[in-house]
């Protein structure tokens, strides 16, 4: 297979209790070494492996998997909630980790820890970023933010926090929950006010805002009414560059968002072609970064860390 970026889900359990996710309810489940080796062998041209979960830092073999990729000349990236990062950082970097992506949903403990259902998590993230800036300056850093009515008022402050902590990249992901409509959660004028404050704040921030993150709501009125979700403007080019492997279904998907809405195709190639042709009309849970990379695939060609 010819994907440049391969997401690998290494586990399905998590140590945070985020209000928008129930992975914390799952028992310990991890990818086997045989599964990892097998899927890696199928992607001869892969340039970046991104480890996801669950919470990947709970996976006992993660440093070994990073080392295996490093020895093959494949760059690596990990998405984490950050709870264990400070303790595990040296092992990850020593084995060749290139990028860390941390989920941060607010600039203060009372905001972030409430959303993530985990007391003390925000301070642990700050400690980890401080450690990275002091000891591992070559490690690429990104923050993913899931925006909802719980934190939209904090986005402008979060932009400044990212600058203070020298985070390189910021990806914003509007919350994806069945039945979630913004008009049921917050007034339109209030939504518009916070959204415009955020857009003003990012003009002063030095963090690189990825994809369509700077205009994640698109048409404000339509988005607030639940009548608009971000998606590629035309055919989905992203599926030419990305794959997502779920060892628990032993299935390779053509995008990291697709596992949440799989349509039961016979094989990966059929699925990839269908999403290339039809995804922009059917996908209701696309992410601003994914949609942008589909519309401007040269981004992926130029730097795999920008996806």
From TrEMBL:
GO MF entries: catalytic activity; iron-sulfur cluster binding; metal ion binding
Known SUPFAM superfamilies for this protein? Radical SAM enzymes
Protein keywords: Iron, Iron-sulfur, Metal-binding, S-adenosyl-L-methionine
Q: Does the keyword Methyltransferase apply?
A: no
Q: Does the keyword Magnesium apply?
A: no
Q: Domain Radical SAM core, which positions?
A: 1-213
Q: Which SMART domains match?
A: Elp3
Q: Where is the signal peptide?
A: none
Q: Which PANTHER family does the UniProt entry name for this protein?
A: PQQA PEPTIDE CYCLASE, RADICAL SAM DOMAIN PROTEIN
Name of this protein = Radical SAM protein
User: What is the species listed in this Swiss-Prot or TrEMBL entry?
Assistant: Blautia fusiformis
């Amino acid at each position: 297979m010819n994907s440049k970026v391969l997401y690998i889900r290494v586990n399905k359990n998590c140590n945070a209790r985020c209000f928008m996710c129930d992975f914390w309810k799952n028992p310990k489940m991890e990818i086997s070494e045989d599964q990892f080796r097998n899927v890696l062998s199928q992607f001869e041209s892969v340039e970046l492996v991104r480890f996801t979960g669950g919470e990947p830092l709970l996976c006992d073999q993660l440093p070994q998997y990073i080392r295996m990729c490093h020895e093959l000349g494949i760059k690596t990236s990990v998405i984490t909630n950050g709870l264990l990062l400070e303790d595990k950082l040296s092992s990850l970097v020593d084995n060749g980790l290139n990028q860390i992506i941390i989920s941060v949903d607010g600039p203060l403990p009372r905001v972030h820890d409430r959303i993530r259902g985990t007391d003390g998590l925000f301070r642990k993230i700050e400690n980890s970023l401080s450690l990275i800036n002091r000891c591992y300056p070559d490690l690429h850093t990104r923050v993913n933010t899931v925006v909802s009515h719980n934190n939209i008022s904090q986005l402008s402050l979060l932009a400044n926090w990212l600058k203070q902590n020298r985070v390189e990249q910021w990806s914003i992901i509007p919350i994806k929950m069945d039945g979630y409509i913004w008009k049921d959660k917050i007034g339109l004028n209030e939504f518009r006010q916070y959204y415009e404050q955020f857009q003003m704040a990012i003009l002063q921030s030095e963090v690189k805002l990825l994809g369509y993150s700077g205009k994640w709501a698109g048409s404000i009125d339509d988005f607030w009414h639940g009548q608009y979700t971000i998606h590629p403007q035309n055919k989905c080019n992203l599926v030419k560059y990305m794959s997502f492997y779920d060892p628990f279904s032993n299935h390779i998907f053509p995008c990291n968002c697709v596992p949440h809405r799989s349509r039961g195709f016979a094989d990966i190639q059929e699925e990839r072609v269908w999403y290339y042709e039809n995804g922009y009309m059917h996908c209701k849970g696309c992410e601003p970064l994914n949609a942008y990379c589909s519309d401007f695939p040269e981004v992926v060609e130029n730097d795999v860390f920008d996806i």
